Amino acid sequence: MKAHIVVLPGDGIGPEVASSGVAVLRQVAQRFGHAFAFDEHAIGGDAIDRFGDPLPPATREALLACDAVLLGAVGGPKWSDPSASVRPEQGLLAMRKLLGVFANVRPLKLHPRTAALSPLKPERTKDVDLVFVRELTGGIYFGAKTRDADGATDECRYSVAEVERVVRHAFDLARSRKRKLTSVDKANVLETSRLWRSVATRVAADYPDVELEHQLVDSMAMHLLTRPADYDVIVTENMFGDILTDEASVLAGSLGLSPSASVGGPGAGIYEPIHGSAPDIAGQSLANPLGTILSVAMLLRHSLGLQAEAEAVEAAVGQVLTHGNLTRDLGGTATTHAVTRAVIDALQTETEAA
Ligand SMILES: NC(=O)c1ccc[n+]([C@@H]2O[C@H](COP(=O)([O-])OP(=O)(O)OC[C@H]3O[C@@H](n4cnc5c(N)ncnc54)[C@H](O)[C@@H]3O)[C@@H](O)[C@H]2O)c1
Ligand SMILES: CC(C)[C@H](C(=O)O)[C@@H](O)C(=O)O
Ligand SMILES: [Mg+2]
């Protein structure tokens, strides 16, 4: 098949991991006979430096005309002055809004070798297989902001429609898995959470085969570490999802292993690791590329409909996690480039054997 993929390297380790993702996609194209065209564009701090805009018009135009987007990461100390009028993260938020990708799917699958690196006891991480569905285009991230000499405000607003579409997305996903959905909110305090809970409860009537439970976000943060294997699909609002997914990545052994797919819009989906630009390790080939490579598998499956190719990439990552030298975050000594090469070699061996 032919596909047009926009690549947004961004800042910090973003270009390092994005190039790993592209290398794997090139290998997939070659082994399976596809024609993928890559179109690189600016976003974030890099785009501010070059164009004075974290999401320049040429990037916007390309996003609206492609089949899928692969993002590295944006941000960094160079652009983090609190008085700056424009910030890299604004480019990322504007892109999510532009493409209308309201459902951010963040799976957490554990590999025994790397889960053993988590601070949790092995019996706690055993059998963990969960997926977060994080609302991505609403809530406090997108509410009105004010700032004056006395203080500042960030408005948190959700419409019924915004809650309903993401909750339905999560119910549909739960239906294809273990039929258990946990909706996370702060309904004991927040009006938006009371709305969230009432919408989730109403929608549940259309999914009698899925068990719905409500959980407050503070105790959820605790349960994620004490009994993570009890959860299947977890749906929550934008900011809670941001925080809980970084927390959950600890169970897998490293933030660098977690992929994501942002979907639900009329056009392209966005695929990116959940981590940031990691300024502390940027430019040293220390970044773990596996979260990005697993995001590539999600891109193949969800935006291009290439199930066998997605499984081949996941199997190749599994091989490397089992036998390979890993990056420093996972206790290894391999460079970003070496781990990427190992995945590509595993992909080649696997597809030759098939
Ligand atoms: N999607 C995105 O573009 C995105 C996501 C999160 C944060 N950010 C931005 O990134 C910048 C830095 O944020 P932060 O330091 O709080 O979070 P971070 O995710 O960049 O890094 C947190 C820690 O995890 C480590 N880490 C992250 N990814 C890794 C990888 N692939 N391999 C090995 N180690 C990895 C880092 O070295 C650091 O110690 C900020 O400007 C923030 O806004 C961007
Ligand atoms: C960089 C930031 C705006 C972003 C978010 O909070 O959504 C990041 O933390 C993420 O998880 O993708
Ligand atoms: Mg985050």
Q: Which short descriptors sum up this protein?
A:
binds magnesium ion; globular; binds nicotinamide-adenine-dinucleotide; 354 residues; binds 3-isopropylmalic acid; magnesium; two-stranded antiparallel ribbon; Isopropylmalate Dehydrogenase; 3-isopropylmalate dehydrogenase; cytoplasm; 18% strand; EC 1.1.1.85; amino-acid biosynthesis; 2 domains; 12 strands; 13 helices
Care to give the gist of this entry?
The protein is of the alpha/beta class and 354 residues long. Helices cover 45% and strands 18% of the residues. Pfam families: Iso_dh.
Q: Can you describe this structure?
A:
The strands form two sheets. The protein has a ten-stranded mixed β-sheet, with helices on both faces. A two-stranded antiparallel ribbon has the order 6-7. The chain is built from 13 helices and twelve strands. The chain is globular and about 55 Å long. The mean pLDDT is 97. Helix content is 45%, strand content 18%. The chain has helices at residues 14-32, 44-51, 57-64, 88-99, 112-115, 122-125, 160-175, 191-204, 217-226, 238-252, 290-303, 307-323, 336-353; strands at residues 2-10, 35-40, 68-73, 103-109, 129-135, 145-148, 151-154, 180-185, 211-216, 233-236, 261-263, 269-271. It has 354 residues and is of the alpha/beta class. The structure holds nicotinamide-adenine-dinucleotide, 3-isopropylmalic acid (IPM) and magnesium ion. Magnesium ion binds next to helix 10.
